[in-house]
Automatic annotation (TrEMBL):
Subunit structure: Interacts with (GTP-bound) Ran. Interacts with (phosphorylated) SFRS1 and SFRS2; leading to their nuclear import. Interacts with NUP62. Interacts with RBM4. Interacts with CPSF6, promoting its nuclear import.
GO biological process: protein import into nucleus
Protein name: Transportin-3
Chief location bin: cytoplasm
GO cellular component: cytoplasm; nuclear envelope
Keyword match Transcription: no
GO molecular function: small GTPase binding
Annotated function: Importin, which transports target proteins into the nucleus. Specifically mediates the nuclear import of splicing factor serine/arginine (SR) proteins, such as RBM4, SFRS1 and SFRS2, by recognizing phosphorylated SR domains. Also mediates the nuclear import of serine/arginine (SR) protein CPSF6, independently of CPSF6 phosphorylation. The nuclear import process is regulated by the small GTPase Ran that partitions between cytoplasm and nucleus in the predominantly GDP- and GTP-bound form, respectively.
Gene3D superfamilies linked: Leucine-rich Repeat Variant
Location within or outside the cell: Cytoplasm; Nucleus envelope
Annotated keywords: Acetylation, Cytoplasm, Nucleus, Phosphoprotein, Protein transport, Transport
Length: 791
């Protein structure tokens, strides 16, 4: 833009942008206005628009333009123009009244804040703003709104990455803020006594307080003597506080508690056994905060009684934040616990947090999870049993409370969908329990949950299921030689009738799977558990749980289920009909493969052949279909569906074969090769299929090593042909596997070098194209690996 446009032209463009129904006109107007904002003329145009105040759209555009120019193009103005810009900005703020649009006010205040941060010649900006816009003797409050808004966004803009303040300027501004905190706090205190018709003035005041506290420029002494802090707690305690005001007060307390936490984490040392003055001030503030926050408990219970979940969430945030802020002090107090009131007060914070965990809404309880993670982490690293045991009663209450939260609705039918929000919450509960259970002991939790439901014939199904769910979370930690309760648990689980609620049966199956290591040491229960799982696997609602349990049993207890290999083969064959994720099916194949590894040597070859044949037959059928458009990813028509299963077989089979004897897996791999070769040819343009096929071949080659030599010539020939046609880098990776396996064989070296010579021209051709290296990172990686293997 080469010349200053007339103001009428700007109005026309804005009118087209906001009101013209023609999308092409809108696009042109948007482009033109964007160019205007980038030009040097934007300064003057924005100022004019704000002075004229024709309509809301033009005022917003003017304010937003001014903010953008100050933020990104302040360097365009000569230093002698800074004062003029500041005065103009202040004049615009003076025009704000209760009818001014909030978005415009925000933009103007952000613009002034960015100007203040960059204008080095303005030496006392905050004092000037307070003197200009602060309340006067006549209690004029018109300008308090923009004043509080500017003071709120100032500390926030300090952390803005788009505002390119140098380190020296940041340091200067921080000193300026530190020297102005007394003025700001005095302003906030004085605003408390001024009547105002603006219902949001209280919210703005608290947000301003939070912003300055978060900046950490306010001293501990200033905080303890600040009337606004008392007002914050009065607001939190008041039954009549509006939701916005209550949330702002909660944010203010949380900001303050973050400062306390940061101070606690600093190296506050003592001098000659006495607290330093700073630490003494910190302790005084902390003790005051503890008492003030404890006094909020009745207000929390009132919010619960009135089903005001928003306020309950706010209280929970505050209770959790102070517990986390003082966690270090709480832990230190356990070193020499003499029953002092101070230690009792600190541990009373845990009671507050647990009160929130008991809230009927699980979203309130979940707010506390971060604190419990932090507590468990600190106790784990401290590795002090005497300290840990003091927290045991609180963790027992925590686990009991989250167990109740995990109860489904009594009228819920079927099992929870994985995408359900409540299922997500239960998953997070499971992770939390696993993290904290060492404090109370897994066996203790396991027994407590079991005894709470054992023999209770009339117990609601959802209570039983939630107890089993918590038991499942800790079951893997149960020692394999445990002989007190697990036997009874397994027997009870095997007696769960088919008429039981589907969710109870689902969790029962998952729990049985988690007890795999215990069952491996107690083989008498393996067969009945296997039969229980196999009976359930064809039930659509239980198939996922049964499959997961089957994978665990076959992987861990493989020595005890090898006599059932024929039945397991039937399960593998039927996997395609089960409503389970592909990943789950692959894990089942993995478990059955591990059972195959435990068969007698003379049976492995035939067993593996049968296991592979299930997948080879399906792959062959897919390759014989003429129309590839019928291939649907992640279904049984997708070759990847079967290639991943084959890869799982070759990857997880573990056989000790003598080099002088034929490898028991060689025949199965030789049988599989024609199908894999056909797949490579049929889907040669599909990179995803090529990668999975090469992955399958990689595990097959690794499995039988040098005994794959008969496949070497046809494999290399096909690899070279397909790579030169479609340059899939996975062939380079597979070539490196061949070098690794056969590089030490003198008879193979010539063939491997010929393979390299055949692959390199096409690879180098791709890398020599414009941006070749950056566009083909996989080829670069795989070539480097291939060269390294040759060397």
């Amino acid at each position: 833009m080469n010349e200053l446009p007339a103001i009428e032209v700007v109005y026309d463009a804005l009118n087209a942008l906001y009101h013209n129904p023609d999308p092409i006109s809108k696009e042109r107007a948007s482009q033109w206005l964007g160019d205007l904002q980038k030009s040097i003329f934007a300064w003057k145009i924005a100022d004019q628009l704000l002075h004229v105040k024709k309509d809301m759209e033009s005022c917003y555009f003017g304010a937003q333009t001014l903010r953008t120019k100050i933020q990104f193009a302040f360097h365009e103005l000569p230093s002698e123009a800074h004062n003029s810009l500041r005065d103009s900005m202040l004049n615009h703020l003076r025009q704000i009244n209760e009818h001014t649009n909030t978005v415009i006010v925000t933009q103007l205040c952000l613009a002034l804040a960015d100007l203040l941060l960059q204008m080095t010649s303005w030496k006392t900006p905050i004092q000037d703003l307070i003197q200009t816009f602060g309340p006067k003797n006549n209690f004029e409050t018109t300008h308090i709104w923009p004043l509080l808004e500017v003071l709120t966004v100032l500390p926030e803009e300090m952390g803005s990455r788009t505002l390119r303040l140098g380190a020296n300027r940041r340091s200067e501004v921080l000193k300026l803020f530190a020297g102005s905190t007394e003025n700001v706090l005095h302003l906030l205190d004085s605003c408390l006594t001024i009547p105002s018709s603006d219902r949001l003035i209280g919210v703005r005041l608290l947000r301003c307080f939070s912003s300055w506290v978060h900046l950490q420029a306010v001293t501990l002494h200033q905080l303890t003597s600040c009337a606004t802090l008392g007002h914050v707690f009065a607001t939190l305690s008041s039954h009549h506080s509006t939701p916005l005001l209550h949330e702002a007060a909660s944010d203010a307390v949380c900001a303050l508690l973050q400062v306390v936490a940061d101070q606690e984490n600093e190296d506050n040392t003592t001098q000659n056994g006495q607290l330093t003055s700073t630490l003494n001030e910190l302790r005084t503030l902390e003790d005051s905060l503890v008492q003030s926050i404890k006094n909020l408990e009745p207000a929390y219970h009132l919010a619960v009684a009135e089903e005001d979940t928003e306020k309950a969430l706010n209280y929970c945030r505050v209770f959790t934040e102070i517990a986390e802020a003082l966690l270090h002090r709480m832990l230190e107090s356990t070193k020499n616990n003499n029953g002092t009131m101070n230690t009792s007060n600190l541990f009373g914070l845990l009671d507050l947090v647990l009160t929130c965990v008991g809230h009927h809404d699980y979203e309130v309880a979940e707010i506390t999870f971060g604190f419990w993670y932090k507590l468990s982490e600190d106790l784990y690293h401290a590795n002090d049993d005497d300290r840990t045991i003091k927290f045991k009663p609180y963790i027992e209450r925590l686990i009991g409370a989250v167990c109740r939260h995990c109860q489904m609705e009594p009228d819920h039918e079927g099992v929870l969908e994985e995408s359900d929000d409540f299922a997500g919450f239960r998953s997070r509960v499971s992770e939390l329990v696993k993290d904290v259970v060492f404090i109370v002991g897994s066996a203790s939790v396991f027994k407590h949950c079991f005894y709470s439901i054992h023999g209770q014939n009339n117990l609601p199904w959802e209570v039983t299921e939630s107890a089993l769910f918590i038991m499942q979370a800790v079951a893997k930690n149960i020692l394999p030689d445990e002989n007190e309760v697990v036997q009874s648990v397994v027997e009870s689980l095997l007696q769960v009738p088919e008429s039981a609620h589907a969710a109870v049966r689902f969790t029962t199956l998952l729990l049985l799977g988690e007890l795999g290591e215990w069952m491996d040491k107690h083989p008498a229960v393996v067969e009945p558990v296997l039969h229980c799982v196999l009976r359930s696997i064809n039930d659509p609602s239980l198939a996922v749980a049964a499959s997961n349990s089957l994978e665990a049993i076959t992987s861990i207890c493989r020595d005890h289920v090898k006599s059932h290999f024929d039945i397991l083969l039937q399960v593998v064959s039927a996997l395609v009909t089960l409503p389970i994720p592909t990943e789950t099916a692959v894990r089942v194949v993995k478990g059955v493969t591990k059972v195959c590894s435990r068969l007698p040597d003379h049976q492995i070859a035939d067993a593996l052949h049968q296991l592979c044949k299930i997948h080879v037959d399906e792959l062959t059928r897919i390759c014989q279909v003429e129309n590839q458009s019928k291939v649907v990813a992640k279904t049984s028509s997708d070759p990847v569906y079967w290639l991943d299963r084959l890869a799982s077989i070759f990857r997880n089979l573990s056989v000790n074969a003598k080099k002088s004897e034929q490898h028991p897996c060689q025949l199965a791999i030789t049988f599989t090769w024609p199908c894999l070769s056909m797949t490579l040819d049929k889907f040669q343009t599909d990179r995803r299929v090529m990668e999975r096929c090469c992955r399958c071949l990689r595990f097959a080659l690794r499995l039988i090593g040098h005994q794959s030599a008969p496949l070497l010539q046809p494999l290399v020939t096909q690899m070279v042909r397909l790579y030169n046609a479609h340059h899939h880098s996975c062939f380079l990776y597979l070539a490196s596997i061949l070098v690794d396996e056969y590089g030490s064989e003198n008879d193979c070296i010539g063939g491997l070098i010929s393979m390299l010579e055949a692959l390199l021209p096409r690879a180098f051709q791709l890398l020599q194209e414009p941006q070749g290296l950056s566009h083909n990172p996989d080829i670069v990686d795989d070539l480097f690996r291939l060269f390294a293997r040759f060397l």
